Amino acid sequence: MKKLIVGMIAHVDAGKTTLSEALLYEAGNLRKLGRVDNGDAFLDPDKIEKKRGITIFSHEAQLTMPDLKLTLLDTPGHIDFAAQTEQVLSVLDYAILVISAADGVTSFTKTLWHLLEKYQVPVFIFVNKIDAPDMKKEAILNKLREYLTENFIDFSTEDEGWEENIVSVDENLLSKYLNGEKISEIEIQTLIKTRKIYPVYFGSALKLTGIKEFLTGLTKWTHTSQPQAEFAARVFKISHDEKGERLTWIKVLGGELTAKTELLPGEKIDQIRDYDGIKFKVLPRISTGEIAAVTGLESTYPGQGLGSEKDSPSASLRPVLSYRVKPQNKDLNQCLSALKILEDEDPQLHVDWSEHLSEIHLHVMGKIQLEVLQQLLQDRFGIIANFDEGNILYKETITERIEAVGHFEPLRHYAEAHFLLEPGKPGSGVVLANKCNLEVLDKNWQHQIMTALANKEHRGVLIGAPLTDIKITLIGGRGSNVHTVGGDFREATYRGVRQGLMELKVKNACKLLEPWYSFYLEIPSTQVGRALNDIQKMNGCFNEPVTKGEMTTIIGQAPVSEMRDYINEVRNYTHGQGQLECVFSGYQTCHNSEEIISSSNYDAVSDLENTPNSVFCSHGAGHTVSWDKVPNFVQYPYQFSL
Which GO terms describe its biological process (predicted)? Predict the structure, then answer.
């Protein structure tokens, strides 16, 4: 039997969960069809999901046929919960991308497509709601090709033209075809698996139209990958069961996983659970290509590689809003403990506790996620909480390079570290490198420095926002065989990075960045002037508006700070006819940086947890040297003249 892990991916309301229900019903794994809007969908078992009528958490279901076993992973379709969707992509054999015939390719559909490309997941397309008025297959197919890729092929009819379209993407197959040779099924399967073509099917999940043909296609045109010999696995989800027990969801990529295995130091697997909806059975082991939820592990995290497998790439979809949490009926410690459990399940929440302010802050994608968090806190932990108006998550970067120095030498301690700080590529984050000779600093000291660099979220000196798009390279330093002890190089490292940033600030070479949205705005054509004027006021930019009938579409970009509440204005001035879809597109130069820097009133020197000053020793005692005077005291020579 062919065994596959398949993800259901879609924009909200495209009919993704309904399609999952239809596939399970058609395969005989469900006796009764559930409906999302009725709150009885098999794959939306959570109370909050039933209430809202959307998928919020990823869920698993088993679809079994005589020669195919699909483990279906139904994923959230709302942008606010897209981080969970991205977590699942790293363990998929195939994805089913559901497109609503009426809505076509939305901005979020494009985002999902780019994520599928990032994780190199083969894709089947199911165009849903084809029974809506005026829906024509060829027109929809052309739009898919225009907005996503040319290599979409209609698999609903396997005729001569269909075969010609397939072989056109591969020179060797085209040559075989022109020579009259038959193209084999496995060659077509390989084209799909290697993402050279994308099969498209049409139907209506609600009416079970096209479901049987789609299942036949999934069975016929997929194949399993060659397993790795040694044990390898990947964590793709953390959750907790109804009793509060922590579940680590794992896909085995090589070898097998057995119960009672010590998978991590001091952490042993108690149970291996095979879930189907909310029900599960306990297994003694799982083998290559299978997924399960295991108990007994406490330090795992989504994207973690186990055995010979490396961690997944860092997430593309990240929150851009920060809110302060205000518990109403419990103390802050109880609320913080509950939020830490939720952060364990979704690391992108990034729960921060400010000791100085006695405040809890968390990061979210949008207001729908905030409303769900509020409900989760109440339902799971009995905590009633409010949230203050959200702040924008700014970041900082640099525009010039500098040699930075940190020195830490209280009495009987010694460490000095030199770094080269350079601007990085947009979207690169913080990149670390080591170009220090072992004759300068021994291996152990270099390891301490690089570990310290990696373990800290480095803050900028304009408003104290996280650093990004910067390369930090260790280039030299000095230690003492007599006085250097553990922690000395960590102190020198943190002080060094900050010292360099302060020098760059004086040179006006530090820059504030803000998150931007890519937006898709559809409004009545009579309101185009109003919309374009609004976008310009928001410091946004846009492509040429496209008018179709009585509606006009405007696609562009704008700062999150300006556009995040614009949906309410759109609804008001279009009397409910307008639609606005916003997707985070990355960080760009802040449009009002002077205003933000001034209002933050951040003093980088007074930030004692991130001090730029160094400590030197003289006359038998340590004394603080301010960041600007450090170059006059360094004991390892500067490597660059900048």
Answer: response to antibiotic; ribosome disassembly; translation
Q: What is the pLDDT of residue 188?
A: 94
Distance CA 642, CA 640 (A): 6
Contact 642, 509 (CB under 8 A): no
- Cα–Cα dist 205/606, whole Å: 60
Nearest C-alpha neighbor of 188 from the set 176, 202, 179: 176
Q: Rounded to an integer, what distance in angstroms lies between the CA atom of residue 89 and that of residue 6?
A: 9
Tell me the two tokens of residue 447. 């390891």
- Whether 514 and 588 have beta carbons less than 8 Å apart is answered as yes
When pLDDT is averaged across residues 465-472 and rounded to a whole number, the result is 96
Rounding to the nearest 10 degrees, give the CA dihedral for residues 580, 586, 592, 597: 130
Could you give the CA distance from residue 630 to residue 26 in angstroms, rounded to a whole number?
A: 73
Closest CA to 449 of 503, 411, 405, 482: 405
pLDDT reported for residue 278: 82
- Greatest C-alpha distance within the chain: 91
429-454 burial code (b ≥16 CB/10 A, e <16):
ebeeeeebeeebbeeebbebbbebbe
Distance CA 154, CA 148 (A): 15
Alpha carbon 181 to chain centroid distance?
45
Q: Tokens in use for 608?
A: 């004692």
Can you tell me the distance from the alpha carbon of 19 to that of 63, in angstroms, rounded to the nearest whole number? 13
Give 104-150 pLDDT, tens digit per residue: 888 788 889 999 999 999 999 999 999 888 888 889 999 899 889 99
Q: How many CA atoms lie within 13 A of 171 on its CB side?
A: 0
Supply 47's token pair: 């109370």
User: How far is Cα 253 from Cα 225, in angstroms, rounded to an integer?
Assistant: 10
Task: Give CA–CA dist 416/489, Å, rounded.
Answer: 7
The candidate with the shortest Cα–Cα distance to 230, out of 271, 283, 288, is 288
Find, among 29, 59, 32, the residue nearest to 45 by Cα. Answer: 59
Strand pairing category for 321-327 and 391-392: antiparallel
Count of alpha carbons within 13 angstroms of residue 560, beta-carbon side: 25
Report how far residue 86's alpha carbon sits from residue 237's, in angstroms, rounded to the nearest whole number: 10
Bridge partners for 300 per DSSP? none
Assess contact for 201 and 156: CB atoms under 8 A. yes
Beta bridge partners of 2: 68
Cβ atoms 555, 519 nearer than 8 A: yes
Cα of first residue to Cα of last residue in the chain, in angstroms, is 65
In a 13 Å sphere around the CA of 5, the CA atoms on its Cβ side amount to 22
Q: pTM for this structure?
A: 0.78
- Summarised one tens digit per residue, pLDDT across range 198-214 is 999 999 998 999 999 99
Report pLDDT digits (tens) over 452-463: 999 999 999 999
**Is the pLDDT confidence value at 38 over 60?**
no
For residue 633, which of 610, 608, 613, 606 has the smallest C-alpha distance? 613
Q: Give just the sign of the alpha carbon dihedral 119, 124, 126, 127.
A: positive
pLDDT at residue 552 above 70? yes
Three-state DSSP class for residue 279:
strand
